Amino acid sequence: MAKVLIPTALRQFAAQKDSVEVSGSTAGEVLNALATQFPDLRKNLFNDEGKLRSFVNVYVNDEDIRYLKKNETPVAGTDTLSIVPSIAGGWK
Amino acid sequence: MITIDPEAWNVMVSHAEATFPNECCGVMVGRTENGVKQVTGAVAMENAYKGVQEDRYELRPEDLLAADKGARAEGLDLIGIFHSHPDCDAYFSKTDLENSCPWYSFVVLSIKKGKFDHAASFLPNADQTAAEKEDLKWQKS
Q1: Four-way CATH pick for B2-138: 3.40.50.720, 3.20.20.370, 3.40.140.10, 1.10.3880.10
Q2: What residue ranges define each of the domains in chain A, with the CATH number in brackets?
Q3: Which of B63, B98, B99, B111 is the best substitution to test chain A (most A C-beta atoms within 10 A)?
């Protein structure tokens, strides 16, 4: 089972857990399993069409899955997934 | 409501004034108890926007990940993001909203002629279509 580090801001939706062990052979499967286990996390991670929200970045170990195989990125039981938002802005 | 301790507030204002006329950015860490977010620390970060930074900022996901890990190690939560609006009021712009995240409070510092003027905090929704204003208090040292 892969380990998913829960961002501190999302722990309230994951029974206050720091990390969760989740089954899945790809990043997409792991994230879906996580959202099934903790339904309140789903709306924070996925939009109504079931796609990862635009501000959600996922890292397998230290690699951003956007630069790997996205949701199809293979995940092994020894891997750690991190969820990190994209944040930017400006006054104009 | 979000309240910011003096030490954290000094970090935020100092960073915002030092980077003027560019926008600055950083994170706030602390604890949430009884619905009140207490910011006990702030970390100034590099504006990673590749272009004119007088009206734009961008946080590197890697920096955010490191900040979250740092907060976790201290038993704290990453509570919010701060950035500055140089020579401009502390509102949540369309650009701010469209590049936000609903997991955090977003504190905007208005810096006018290089000095702090006022601040406001916002809570964007998950669809990045609206941001509610949040009560903000800070303590100067």
Answers
A1: 3.40.140.10
A2: 2-85 (3.10.20.30)
A3: B99
Contact (CB, 8 A) for B23 and B86? yes
**What does the alpha-carbon distance between residue B76 and residue B61 come to, in Å, rounded to a whole number?**
19
Whole-structure pTM value:
0.94
Complex prediction ipTM: 0.94
Beta strands, E only, A6-85: 19-22, 56-60, 63-64, 80-85
Residue B92: pLDDT band with limits 50, 70, 90: very high
Q: Which residue of A has its CA nearest to B100?
A: A87
Coil, helix or strand at residue B8: helix
